[in-house]
Write a structure and sequence with these properties.
Beta-lactamase; 7 strands; homotetramer; Beta-lactam/transpept-like (chains A, B, C, D); 312 residues; Glutaminase (chains A, B, C, D); two-stranded antiparallel ribbon; hydrolase (chains A, B, C, D); alpha+beta; 10% strand; globular
């Protein structure tokens, strides 16, 4: 598959342009994540959006080639990489139910004996990373190699400054990891795990990169090179988990408004999947109070409204 | 639209027959709801499944014409009937996020000041019924008229014995209603509301009835007689709420396994929607620990696996 | 025992006068309870304080003879009246641990299957009243008779306006009662129970009345007429429950500052016990955010500081 | 003050002997703490009890000179040592309310933004140790010096095996510390803090040692050498916190049964204070489900019943 990164004739390009136009008239709303300086410095008015079709065609509007911090969007890829290796045994260590709580809460974790609700809250992503680490010895490296391959962008890399900053402000995640370790649900040493986890969150990617890298979810498990990463059933399952758990404590609202499997990150990126058709990535750093990009959700909402491409 | 209730040539009939065959080889598992005698008396080995196509064709296997207690499946219809009248104002009184808690829990309700998480937990359904009651003066009557019209079955009715039994064992729902009233989120007198609520839950319906009555969700808001109940967008929204919140504390698992918008009831019924294609209803009274029909979920899981008709 | 209601030579009178003097220089702080109009109308600057010695001598300062709404202070007496009849069986239906939650919370009640944490949160007091009602047929009447006898004040009575107002705003307590009924922990019909409960809360009493009525707790279980209400051990136990649970979610702070068994009410009254020595009642309607009288706690704090009469 | 460690004529000796006799007829009940091997190895039938009078006279029964792991009993001394230095500022960092939750729960900590409920749950003790560490540079060393001085036993020491074992099984405490650090409520590096914390918990002490070391709480703040550690008011305050929070989630029951300020540890020790009169320490490793020594609570219950020395 050849990845074509500029396609003036892209099917949805006129729609993307219309959305970008509408968004540009909306004053920047939401606030960038401020728990680490590297994210807080983002301009909340930034906006980019890309669509990747099944054949690897990718196109976009606005700052669709501008790298940003992928953050929790990477949780989808780590989940896929571990599920591909481990299969259903993973689900004995992490659930797949919406949490009904903020993404870094410890409450439910305590009631449920150290088994996180789903792989997309921080606790669950720590478990997935821990398991991938056990299987590969370098979870973050696996992720990076996968993203480079799928996006066709060998320059993709960790952002060391962001990773260092996450580590410096990582007390909550350290608490989550130690807490799960107290229930025997973490295999690796906590500092090793946190290093892997923070590095993978720090990957700098563009909308184009992430739209392409998500393609296997629209292609029912098939990677960019035509090889199979996941079974058809597993790809469907990840989409289901994204729809019910992908946008923190706003999954119901996202399903209601957008109606697509999606995963957001506090860097302001959101990926979304139209199964069998295409993948999208939108980026704008201004977040709502639940940690999702305000303009990003609005743009995806417009996309499914204008195209009728919701799964419902 | 003519409702054809026997269609040997139904598209999915061979698949339904295969599923029924498989299910028949599985020993009855799960236990009927036992909080009221009328439900506890059900035979857990009962099984029926029906498909209604967009044009009103309906067909099924097993006990697909046997009436059973619709229970929480009716919450979908009450939601639609209220949303059709009230529009988005409803969402100021009930959320649309998965709850992450059992369906009759009070915990989240307290933290969120009497606003239930979604319309499908009991607290949320009480709010919806309360609002429909305010607008119509007879919420249960509205529901019954709607079910009769959509199913083409004028014999559909409340089960007075079940309603009386629910009332006698209704202390938890009474607590929920009074609790929300203490936050000003209930308009009607609590005993009036509970009477309406328990009667609507008691409706006795068959798989054929419920598959037909759900048709508007597959037809993007259009009723059986061709009139519009909901806007296209509202129909999509209800499907989204069903997918994220329709099966109690197992919505994530249901999305993962079945991959369709669905709503279950403790009578053992489950409806599911394939948008733009058909609706299904399956019934088997044996419940799992989260209140969903064991054989019902298994049958829907097989259906989407065999047909590839998941939304993902 | 002769009750002497004016004793210029009361042992602690100079100390009470000093406290009243100090309090008078403090601007009224806190706010009267505002959930019912009858309480909201109180003047937050009102202040009265009385001491009753073991022999029934009673004296006070400020508005120590002015009736106010006893509210939750009555929970001590209902507890004693039921414990005297029922003995330890009561503790199978209500715990005796501090709740760590506001006094009308449902959260803990759900985790602990309808068994309230202690007899002084609303849920627990409802259980105690329910059990006393079962044993006497008129729990509120029993309470009234007891208060009249111990205070030597036959004019003590329910305040019908307050009781009616409580009933009209009683949705939260109705929710608590129905909720516990759903666990089988309430015997009487909920409306009957609520009527008994709200009437008993409404009793209008003065500092003098309540200081005298509490005397049995300082006399190790002996009533004003010399008869025994409780065993020595039971009297000690009630004092212990008062110390650990008597001031809502501020029991630790009250123990820390005052160091005496005490019980507060949202009418602004607080009783306190110096075992083997005397009982106190202070009243001032301005409440802190946890529902305790601001000036009342301050006055008791001063009392134990000046006299050294803390139990610690 | 001369510490007399053998006093056949001790006031309460006959009572202790009677209690020991009664306990010896009770089959060992409860189970030793099993989260670390060093504690799990204890014989649950071990029993010792000591009384220290105000003048330093100490006597006991059973294995009253046998060292055991002091564990959480040390929290009282660390609290006193920090309060003596810091005063009321401490209470901005830790509360003094009963928690209503198990001693190592994270739930309340999250709702209350990293401020532990009281100094005797693990989270609160970590805060106290952290603050003492900041003030002294060696919190555990301060504690050890204090215990040696008050008990007159220069051989008192940390148990390195226990400390190492705690560290190896310390994931939950690590989680608590990191979690509070995420709210800015921990000053020192978490590994440094945990080392201090686990060492102080590991101190091996006998009933005689702990009864003597607690003496300042019965002497209203005066140490064994006659110098003042705490103001009279502070000593009273610590007693109050012990009564309301000293026995984990069973403080209400302990107050109800024993009626004295007390503090338990999972090593099976419990200290108790009769203000102005004496201090006690009882030890027996069999714990109830809430972490308190079964025989220890029973022995103290008997003591106050036989002597009438409850504070109530």
């Amino acid at each position: 598959m050849v990845i074509m990164t500029s396609t003036p004739s892209g099917t949805f390009l006129p729609i993307l342009e219309r959305i970008a136009e509408e968004i540009s008239h909306t004053p920047g709303s939401g606030r960038p994540a401020d728990y680490i300086p590297a994210l807080a410095a983002c301009d909340p008015r930034s906006f980019g959006m890309a669509v990747a079709e099944l054949d690897g065609t990718v196109y976009g509007v606005g700052e669709w080639r501008q790298p940003f911090s992928a953050q929790s969007v990477t949780k989808v890829f780590t989940l896929a990489l571990d599920l591909a290796r481990e299969g259903d045994e993973l689900w004995e260590h992490v659930g797949r139910e919406p949490s009904g709580n903020p993404f870094n809460s410890l409450v439910q974790l305590e009631y449920e004996n150290g088994i996180p609700r789903n792989p997309f809250i921080n606790a669950g992503a720590l478990v997935v990373t821990d398991r991938l680490q056990t299987r590969t010895g370098d979870a973050a490296g696996e992720l990076l190699a996968f993203l480079r391959a799928e996006s066709g962008n060998p320059a993709l890399d960790f952002d060391q400054e962001v990773a260092a900053s996450e580590t410096a402000h990582g007390a909550r995640n350290a608490a989550l990891a130690h807490f799960m370790a107290s229930y025997g649900n973490i295999d690796n040493d906590v500092p090793v795990l946190l290093d892997q986890y923070f590095r993978q969150c720090s990957v700098a990617t563009s909308c184009a990169d992430l739209a392409l890298a998500s393609g296997f979810l629209a292609r029912h498990g098939i990677r960019a090179d035509g090889s199979r990463l996941l079974s058809r059933s597993q790809a469907k399952q990840i989409n289901a988990v994204m729809l019910t758990c992908g946008t923190y404590d706003a999954a119901g609202d996202f399903a209601y408004r957008v109606g697509l499997p999606g995963k957001s990150g506090v860097g302001g990126g959101i990926i979304a999947v139209v199964p069998g058709r295409c993948t999208l990535c939108v980026w704008s750093p201004g977040l709502d109070e639940r940690g999702n990009s305000v303009a990003g959700v609005a743009a995806l909402d417009r996309f499914t409204t204008l195209t009728g491409l919701s799964v419902f």
